[in-house]
Design brief:
1167 residues, mainly alpha, two-stranded antiparallel sheet, 44 helices, flat
């Protein structure tokens, strides 16, 4: 093909000109690109303007290239490419061959030194070289595209895939039917523009060869660069060896420098001598530096193949033994100081300063976490030892034996003293009295022995608990002081807090339980469950929680010892242990509060000390009194010349909080005055914090953890921490002692008749002696909360009170079973004698028993905590009595509820049923007689005939037998029911003439007097106006106004006007709507049926079943009364419409008035 020979021709033409292989290859590639992609010409990518043509050879080569490009372009041109022809004529120079020429010129310039190198044509070679590079990249991209397309075309339909791609690049493809015609014309025309797949494949192969050539060039360049890199690595390796040797020499010099500082000082670090903390701190810093240098790999000899050492440095090896000896001396001195400081619980500024300096030594040595955990572990071991000495079977046995021996000695001495004081008058009397005196002395001896034994045992337990709490308090104080120093001390160089350094270490396994408990609390508060929060990390919390966990486990094991035989003795320890624990926690709380207040005061002082003690604070932290809020040591009574730590070196570094940037450079001239002021403020804060309230102590985390909680170890068992197991055992024993007398109360009575058949008998009730015994037991249990009488703590009063409440609950359950449950019919009053039945009398006796017990329970706190110390008064005793009284309130409520529901309510219903039957008799014509005889009017007083004697019998036979508080309840209930029932029955009287109104008014006065007497005999000073908020009495007074209401006399008023006038009266609000409704029925025509007639019941039955309940409640009957009234009015209207209304009796407006009044009265009632 003509197109395939153009590239070699161009190469041969340029070969004589000294063209390189790379340049020729690039030119051929670009020429082929132009021939394949006419779009470059269309978009002007072949233009190269601005090239100068000074060189003739260059011009000739450019012309040749232009001609060859014209031939190529002409071979691909068609009739519809007129635009391309004009564009190619304007730009006659071919860019591709220009790029090639630039490459050729560049290559020839490298080989020869002709005059072409300095021509103007060369100035643009770099530009075209860049464009050539871009063109080659485009060639590579299109080559890859063509290869992928060729593979697909070879497998599938080439005509459907390659055709659009070739047309996109400006080539035209002949159709299948014109293929023969194109082949025929091929010979005539000498060529065709049809591009076949074979030609395209050839072109792709040429492009592939060109890319392989470029890869070869790239590999050559890469190999050249690799050789340079290898030479560079060799040079840097030699340089690194030089630098490593230099660093090793520096470390050796530093090691010698540190050795000169500490070798002479190390021999003076002896525990037998006084250790200067300044020298110890410097030595620790130097030892830490030396150990770090000696551990460096450069100074550490390595093991050789034969087992020896190689790579040793003689200077370093000579210094190593002496450095290790000094390090050992420093560690021994620090350990001795740590043990000395941990053996004391002093919280003075001097001891805390020494502790801070010692911790600084451990920080320099890198052993601060280990030292801190070791100190906390030591304190924990101390608490375990103290707990084992108290909660141990042998200790409990020794306490009992010692108390018995001492009590026996004291009882014998007391008995001998009483025996020596006896004098006898004659011989016979001496013998008889001697025998009697022997028995009395033995009885007195036993009583004194038991009393003294209980007292001595209580003293032994209190002493043992006090010893235990002292040991726990000492250990906790040491841990708290350690935590305070760690939290407030910073390293002067790294500015790292000591507590942060400890928190970053791993918690020891012996504190795993405490860590787990704190983690659970952290998760409940929404924190992370992976590790403890570093911001709230506390060594003291871990120690205290772990101590509580260990204490709980030890108590549980002791309670289970020998199948629980020691459970009662262990439980008896709780009052003394709780009292000692509360004192311990209160003291610890005061210490923490005072230290935190003092620390807040001195935060600002710690910042300003840098100016007083030098730049960076020096070693002022060794004598700073930040921990307790006092001034400097000189302010505590020590002379500054005798203070070994007032001139500490800055090597120990800075204050506990570090110095600020201003403190490093600015001197505080008023440093001494500020420290003195801080000491005064710290003392004031300490004195104010020592009076912490008990409530704050009970809410503290220490007390909560010590009280303990129940934790589940697995699915079936559970364990407790702290004193929870001991408290549970104590409450169990207390409950057992309280419940012991109950099994002998309310025994079932058994009786048989003459035939041996058992007959039911009411249970036997407790006697006054039994109730007094219960009172004594309750007060004895409550006295365990009195430190003087029971050795406990006042805060136990509420706890023991809850046990008393449970005992009272059991007593109420037994009493409820003893109450007669034969029904109200059998318990009702005798209708002839108005006397109580046997079951009712039995229930009254039960109420008396419950009243006596309630009185004892109510007075127990006062008799236990206050009365034994009168006339002296104590706020603590008053608070204990009050808390115990509040704890016993549920028991009193339960007693009152039992008596009211089981005894008083049935009694009141029985009495009210009898009163209701008497009140119903007023409808038997008592008020229908219009007698004119005044004497007959007085003799026919309804109240005097039927009610007065009945109320007197109730007061004499029931109220007098009931306790005062219960008699008041019965009298009030009966009075309330009587008033409502009397008013309701009186309102239903019909017809009600003038004389009947007068009699009813007189009976109202007699009725009020009879009820006043009944309430007074009930044992209360209340009047009728104070019973049930005064509502029954107000209605009773309003009925008098209602009887003489005369608004209906004016026949001209409409029903609405009458209703409005009635609603304006002030006394209407005191009346129930049903009372007013029923009273208006007395003015109505006979055609308007009365409510009880409408219901077809008696008036008394209507009142008792609908309007007034037997317990005196009236709210439920108002709605029913209104419904009945509306029904009566509806029936009246129907009858009136049928009969024509020709009736003259009564007022026909009543029905309309009732329909107007009803909704308004009910609305007011609901409000």
């Amino acid at each position: 093909m003509a197109t395939t020979s153009s590239a070699p021709a161009a190469a041969n033409t340029s070969a004589p000109m000294g063209t390189s292989t790379i340049g020729a290859g690039a030119a051929n590639a670009l020429s082929l690109l132009l021939r394949e992609d006419p779009l470059l010409i269309q978009h002007g990518l072949t233009s190269y303007r601005g090239l100068s043509g000074d060189n003739n050879d260059n011009q000739s080569s450019t012309a040749d290239s232009t001609n060859s490009v014209d031939d190529i372009v002409g071979s691909h041109r068609h009739d519809d490419d007129a635009a391309l022809q004009s564009s190619s004529k304007i730009h006659q120079d071919d860019a591709a061959h220009s790029y090639a020429a630039a490459l050729l010129h560049d290559g020839s310039n490298n080989n020869t030194s002709s005059s072409h190198a300095k021509s103007g044509w060369m100035t643009s070679s770099g530009e075209y070289r860049q464009r050539a590079t871009e063109a080659l990249a485009e060639v590579d991209r299109k080559l890859a595209l063509v290869e992928s397309l060729s593979q697909r075309i070879s497998r599938e339909a080439p005509e459907k895939v390659a055709g659009p791609l070739l047309r996109l690049h400006g080539f035209r493809l002949a159709s299948a039917e014109n293929e023969e015609e194109d082949g025929t014309n091929k010979g005539d025309s000498g060529g065709s523009n049809l591009v076949t797949l074979s030609a395209t494949r050839d072109k792709a192969e040429r492009l592939q060869r060109q890319s392989a050539l470029l890869d070869t060039v790239a590999k050559r360049v890469e190999s050249t660069l690799q050789r340079g890199v290898t030479r560079m690595e060799s040079a840097t390796t030699r340089l690194s060896r030089v630098l490593e040797l230099s660093a090793t020499l520096k470390m050796i010099l530093r090691l010698q420098f540190e050795a000169r500082k500490v070798l002479h000082a190390g021999s003076g670090l002896d525990l037998n001598n006084v250790v200067d903390l300044r020298d110890l701190t410097r030595a620790a810093a130097s030892v830490a530096a030396m150990e770090e240098l000696l551990a460096h790999p450069s100074l550490t000899p390595s093991k050789s193949a034969d087992g020896g050492e190689e790579g040793t440095v003689d200077v370093v090896e000579n210094l190593r033994p002496e450095a290790e000896a000094v390090a050992s001396s420093v560690r021994k001195a620090a350990a001795g100081l740590m043990d000395e400081l941990q053996s004391t619980t002093s919280g003075s500024a001097a001891s805390l300063t020494r502790l801070g300096a010692t911790l600084q030594v451990y920080f320099h040595l890198g052993e601060l976490p280990d030292a801190a955990w070791k100190s906390v572990s030591s304190a924990l071991a101390t608490t375990e030892k103290a707990s084992s000495q108290l909660f141990h079977p042998t200790a409990l046995k020794k306490m009992r034996e010692s108390a018995k021996s001492e009590a026996k000695v004291l009882a014998e001495a007391e008995s001998n003293k009483s025996k020596d004081g006896k004098n006898f008058k004659d011989g016979d009397a001496k013998a008889s009295e001697s025998r009697l005196d022997t028995r009395q002395r033995k009885k007195q001896y036993e009583s004194a022995y038991q009393r003294l034994y209980a007292r001595k045992l209580r003293e032994k337990r209190a002493a043992a608990a006090s010893k235990w709490s002292t040991a726990i308090s000492d250990a906790a104080s040491r841990v708290w002081n350690l935590h305070r120093v760690l939290a407030r001390r910073n390293d002067p160089v790294t500015r790292k807090n000591f507590l942060d350094a400890v928190s970053e270490s791993r918690v020891p396994r012996e504190f795993a339980g405490a860590e787990g408990r704190l983690m659970e609390v952290q998760i409940r508060n929404g924190g992370d469950g992976l590790m403890l929060n570093k911001a709230n990390f506390s060594l003291f919390s871990l120690f205290w929680v772990q101590m509580s966990i260990g204490l709980g486990g030890r108590i549980q094991r002791l309670l289970k010892y020998d199948n629980g035989t020691l459970e009662s003795d262990v439980a008896a320890l709780y009052p003394a242990v709780r009292s000692a624990s509360l004192s311990m926690v209160t003291e610890l709380y005061d210490t923490k509060l005072s230290s935190s207040d003092a620390g807040d005061v001195n935060v600002g002082g710690a910042i300003s000390m840098g100016g007083s003690y030098g730049v960076m604070g020096g070693s002022a932290g060794l004598e700073d009194a930040v921990f307790l809020g006092g001034g400097a040591l000189g302010g505590s009574g020590m002379d500054s010349s005798e203070d070994y730590f007032s001139r500490a070196d800055e090597a120990a570094g800075g204050g506990f909080f570090g110095a600020t940037a201003d403190a490093w450079t600015h001197v505080d001239s008023a440093g001494g005055d500020s420290e003195a002021g801080q000491g005064t403020r710290g003392a004031a804060a300490h004195s104010s914090a020592s009076s912490s309230s008990t409530l704050a102590v009970f809410s503290s985390t220490e007390w909560t953890a010590l009280q303990g909680e129940t934790t589940s170890t697995d699915g079936s068992s559970s364990s407790s921490t702290g004193l929870l197991a001991l408290q549970t055992a104590f409450l169990k024993e207390s409950k057992k002692r309280l419940f012991a007398p109950l099994e002998f109360l309310f025994p079932e009575a058994v009786s048989v008749d003459e035939n041996g058949i058992a007959i039911p008998v009411l249970p036997t009730l407790p006697s006054r002696y039994d109730i007094a015994k219960l009172d004594a037991i309750v007060r004895e249990e409550l006295s365990l909360a009195d430190p003087r009488q029971g050795g406990g703590d006042f805060s136990m009063a509420a706890m023991i009170g809850e046990m008393v409440v449970s005992m009272m609950h059991e007593f109420c359950v037994m009493a409820s079973r003893a109450i007669s449950e034969t029904g109200e019919e059998n318990r009702a009053l005798d209708s002839r004698s108005s006397s109580a039945s046997e079951s009712q009398t039995h229930n009254l006796n039960v109420s008396a028993v419950m009243s006596s017990l309630a009185s004892f329970v109510r007075n127990a706190p006062e008799n236990t905590f206050v009365n034994p110390y009168r006339p002296a008064q104590s706020t603590q005793h008053e608070e204990a009595a009050h808390s115990c009284r509040m704890a016993l309130l549920p028991a009193l409520r339960e007693i009152d509820s039992l008596v009211k529901s089981s005894i008083l309510d049935p009694l009141c219903r029985s009495l009210n049923r009898q009163v209701s039957a008497a009140l119903a008799k007023m409808h038997r014509g008592t008020y229908l007689k219009e007698s004119e005889d005044p004497m007959s009017q007085q003799q026919s007083s309804f109240v005097q005939i039927y009610l007065t004697d009945q109320y007197d019998a109730i007061a004499a036979k029931y109220l007098s037998q009931l306790p005062n508080e219960y008699a008041v309840t019965v009298a009030s209930t009966v009075a309330t029911f009587s008033i409502y029932s009397f008013v309701s029955n009186a309102a239903l009287l019909r017809p009600l003439g003038e004389m009947s109104r007068l009699r009813l008014t007189q009976d109202l006065a007699d009725f009020e007097m009879a009820l006043e007497q009944l309430v007074f005999k009930g044992g209360t000073s209340l009047s009728l106006s104070q019973i049930a908020n005064g509502k029954p009495y107000a209605e009773l007074r309003a009925v008098r106004q209602l009887l003489y209401w005369a608004a209906l006399e004016d026949r001209t008023l409409s029903p609405a006007e009458v209703a409005k006038g009635l609603l304006r009266d002030a006394w209407v609000k005191d009346l129930r709507p049903s009372t007013l409704f029923h009273f208006l029925f007395s003015f109505a025509p006979a055609l308007l049926t009365s409510p009880h007639h409408f219901k077809r019941v008696d008036a008394g039955e209507y009142v008792s079943n609908t309007l007034v309940k037997l317990d005196g409640s009236v709210e439920d009957g108002e709605a029913s009364a209104w419904m009945t009234t509306m029904a009566c009015c509806d029936a009246y209207q129907q009858r009136e419409s049928v009969d024509g209304g020709d009736y003259t009796d009564g007022d026909r407006r009543i029905g309309a008035i009732l329909m107007v009044l009803g909704p308004e009265l009910l609305r007011r009632r609901r409000q």
